[in-house]
Amino acid sequence: MNHYLSIDVGGTHIKYALFDKSGKLLQKNHCETPQNLEAFLVVVDQLIAAFAEQIRGVAVSCPGKIDTKAGIIYYGGALTYLHELNLSKHIWEKFGLPATVVNDGKAAALAEFWQGNLRGVNHGLALILGTGVGGGIISDGKLLLGQHFQAGELSLMAVPSETLQPLDMLGMNGSAVRMIGRVAEKLGLENRKDGRAVFEAINAKDERVYPIFQDFCRNIAYLIYNVQAVLDMKRVVIGGGISAQSVVLEEIQAQYQSILNGLGPFQFMVTPVDIQVCAFGSEANLIGAIYQLMLMEKSL
Q1: Contact predicate 220/129, CB 8 Å
Q2: Domains within the chain, CATH numbers bracketed
Q3: DSSP count for the chain of H helices, then E strands
Q4: What angle (nearest 5°) sits at the alpha carbon of residue 170, between those of residues 166 and 174?
Q5: pLDDT tens, 171-230?
Q6: Which family does it belong to (predicted)?
Q7: What's the rounded Cα separation, in Å, for the pair 231 and 64?
Q8: Which of 32, 129, 146, 189 could disulfide-link to 176, CB 3.0 to 4.6 Å?
């Protein structure tokens, strides 16, 4: 019983994987995410039961505001039925196994801090680009949770507006999914989620759509600039599916430098932050959740 089970709850799929105590991934798989609480708990219980004789603990990553110390999920992102579920307590009472729950963006940050491109960085940010803008902040070598567990919820940041609307929030302006949809529409694609065709046009610098992509990257660059002014970080790492496209990092870096260049003498007052891509892709949340569980074990 020296292994750990990690479960990453997403809106469409639940990924799960078995890890050894060094963080080496031994096996992984996925299943569909149920659409109600009763069915969700059945799936979680079945997964744990299948590995119960091999594991010493369960690590969970999921959307929402998470009280990591208590294991309580609030709101649950798109999975609203998870609101106020104490999943750690459920797992302990059902299986007698210690369990931790951590927000998915924060799990990605922990993965990078443990074994990825934030390793050895005491002040950093993992910026996850997807449907919204997720994030996890490393401050003084620790994951920053915040008073209300919402530190790093970058989607909630707003741009100036007379009356704040959802479209004025960074989760919309910085949404990679929305950007892809806008580009696909401009290209006349039947499938508005065809990321491959979208990035073929972007990489070709198609004049019809490249300005849309530039605007998206500039919004992310402004976000990085503002967070750097507040937190004074060493490094920001960019994650999410689109980060696999090298043009994303290149354009964000270019837009960030353009912002600095426009500051004139003030550019020297904010130390530029190093911007890289995340080391981990789709496995980041699984890895980060395991690290959170190991941290809990060490604190006991």
Answers
A1: yes
A2: 3-103+282-299 (3.30.420.40), 117-277 (3.30.420.40)
A3: 9, 13
A4: 120
A5: 888 999 999 999 999 999 999 999 999 999 999 999 999 999 999 999 999 999 999 999
A6: Belongs to the ROK (NagC/XylR) family.
A7: 23
A8: 129
